[in-house]
Backbone:
């Protein structure tokens, strides 16, 4: 599986990705609104990479795409897609290393995945984020997601209740 744009390649994870995954997922600024707690030690990253590599993008459940910067040939983040059992809808999440944020890479990667998913016949893609994560909310809106809900004090995360924003995008409203 390989999706490409001018700057990025979305591919399957490989064992050589463990060190980079460990580095960016260990960054407290990257992990702040995510479900994991840093640091992510190298051995845990190696296990995650093996788990990600074994996944299949068209089986129900999560599949993690590695986001590779094509010119520098390095891992800069990942996009998770959870395909529902009905094979017509999915959930999406994205993580980028801090030094790669703010340059349009997240937008580019999410657009590639959405184009692929809708091109394969999916009806709907959903996403959610911590309400404090303004940059993620803006990214989702930039690529066409609509805010569909707000859940106050919904998620217990890292010792506190957090508010969630719900997003959705229908294939019929997708404009790449």
Residues:
């Amino acid at each position: 599986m390989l999706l490409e744009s001018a700057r990025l390649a979305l591919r399957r994870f490989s064992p050589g990705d463990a060190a980079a995954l460990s580095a960016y997922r260990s960054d407290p600024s990257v992990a702040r609104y995510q479900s994991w707690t840093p640091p992510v030690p190298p051995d845990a990253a190696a296990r995650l990479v093996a788990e990600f590599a074994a996944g299949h993008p068209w089986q129900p459940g999560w599949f993690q795409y590695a986001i590779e910067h094509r010119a520098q040939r390095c891992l800069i983040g990942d996009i998770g897609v959870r395909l529902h059992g009905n094979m017509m809808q999915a959930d999406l999440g994205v993580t980028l290393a801090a030094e790669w944020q703010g340059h349009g890479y997240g937008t580019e990667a999410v657009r590639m995945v959405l184009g692929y998913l809708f091109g394969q016949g999916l009806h709907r893609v959903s996403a959610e984020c911590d309400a404090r994560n303004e940059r993620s909310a803006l990214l989702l809106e930039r690529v066409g997601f609509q805010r569909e809900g707000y859940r106050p004090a919904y998620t217990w995360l890292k010792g506190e209740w957090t508010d969630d924003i719900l997003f959705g995008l229908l294939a019929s409203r997708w404009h790449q």
Observations:
- The chain has one domain: 2-173.
